[in-house]
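FAQ

Q: What does a record look like?
A: Structure on top, sequence underneath. For example:
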C-alpha cells in the first residue's frame, strides 16, 4: 500500500498510532524519533516516525531500549522487510504495523474531508458536512459508553462509519479551553436516559 507523505502534529500522530500524546512528546524529547519543526514551528512527525512510535511502545515491555534501537537500525537497513528479527526469540511483524498505521492515517484523512466548521452553525463547533451534528459530542458519547448503534439511532443523519471517524478526528484535534456544553451551542436535548450506578459490595 502506497502511503502519502504527510507531516503529523503530535496529537495527530497519537491518534494514528494509538499512543498517548504525552508518550509522543516523550519520544521526541528522548530522541527516539527525530525532532522536526513544522512551518508554524510546532513539532512535526513523518510516517516513519509513526512506525517507530508504534513499535517502540508496542515492544516496550519485551525489549530493552538498546534492543529496540537495534530493531530500528535493522528496519532502516531493510526498509521493505515484512518481518524483522528483534532477538533470538522475537520476530516483529513490521508489515502489519505499517498496514494498521496506513488504515488509521487514511481514516484521519477521510474524517478531515467530511468534518468542518461552518460559520453560524453551532457557534463554529466542528460538525459533519451537511449536518448540525457536533463531532466532539459524538466522540464524547462513545467515550462515555454509548454504542455506535445507539448514537446512530439518536442521530439518523450519521452512519456507523461517521461515528468511528468522530473518534479519530477528536483525538487528532483536541479541544482547547473549557469544554463547551451542548446548550452553549444552541442544541437542545430532546430526551435523556439516566443510568444507575451499580452499588458497591
Amino acid at each position: 500500500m502506497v502511503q502519502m507523505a504527510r507531516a503529523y502534529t503530535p496529537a495527530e500522530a497519537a491518534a494514528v498510532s494509538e499512543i498517548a500524546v504525552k508518550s509522543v512528546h516523550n519520544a521526541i524529547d528522548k530522541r527516539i524519533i527525530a525532532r522536526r519543526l513544522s512551518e508554524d514551528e510546532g513539532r512535526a512527525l513523518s510516517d516513519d516516525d509513526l512506525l517507530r512510535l508504534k513499535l517502540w511502545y508496542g515492544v516496550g515491555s519485551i525489549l530493552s531500549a538498546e534492543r529496540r534501537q537495534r530493531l530500528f537500525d535493522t528496519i532502516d537497513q531493510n526498509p521493505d522487510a515484512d518481518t524483522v528479527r528483534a532477538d533470538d526469540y522475537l520476530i516483529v511483524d513490521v508489515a502489519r504495523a505499517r498496514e494498521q498505521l496506513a488504515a488509521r492515517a487514511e481514516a484521519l484523512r477521510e474524517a478531515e474531508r467530511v468534518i468542518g466548521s461552518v460559520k453560524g452553525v453551532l457557534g463554529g463547533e466542528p460538525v459533519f458536512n451537511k449536518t448540525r451534528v457536533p463531532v466532539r459530542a459524538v466522540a464524547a458519547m462513545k467515550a462515555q459508553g454509548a454504542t455506535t448503534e445507539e448514537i446512530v439511532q439518536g442521530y439518523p443523519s450519521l452512519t456507523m462509519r461517521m461515528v468511528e471517524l468522530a473518534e479519530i478526528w477528536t483525538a487528532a484535534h483536541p479541544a482547547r479551553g473549557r469544554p463547551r456544553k451542548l446548550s452553549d451551542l444552541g442544541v437542545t436535548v430532546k430526551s435523556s436516559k439516566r443510568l444507575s450506578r451499580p452499588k458497591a459490595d
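Q: Is there anything notable about this one?
A: Helices lie at 10-17, 21-29, 47-58, 65-77, 94-114, 135-143, 148-154, 160-172.
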